[in-house]
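Pasting as-is:
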Amino acid sequence: MKTLILGLGDPILSDDGVGFRVAGELRGRLSQQEVSVMETSMAGLSLLDLLAGYDRAIIIDAIQTVGGKAGQIYRLDSEVLDVTQHAASAHNVNLATALELGNKLGLALPQQIVIFAIEVADVCTFSEECTPEVTRAIPACVEMIIQELNGDTNT
């Protein structure tokens, strides 16, 4: 199964770079030929070009929830995105809306998309380092994704 691991975020905004850091750790550990690892700061419609042609995508990104604890890792299936579709303008297209548009256009998008979201504390400070809580979550997220790749989704 041709798989894309995609780390999202901004690597110079502290915890927002956690997707980049997890993807970078995975790149050094994976030897499977069917797995590609990428990092990007792109979002919305721009992601369609990266996702096209893969059977499965594992997306890693920062998340901030009400009452969330920094460093907590969430494994989300793409079905959770269905309730978030909106597009106030072409510049404000979220992942769910982009995927729906890509499917309607007949793009060869992944049939399986899993998101690993890490609860973050600071996405505003210019820094190439994550906060301590988020830094401690990186190895755990890497292991969860390796388990996902090996077919063990009891994470």
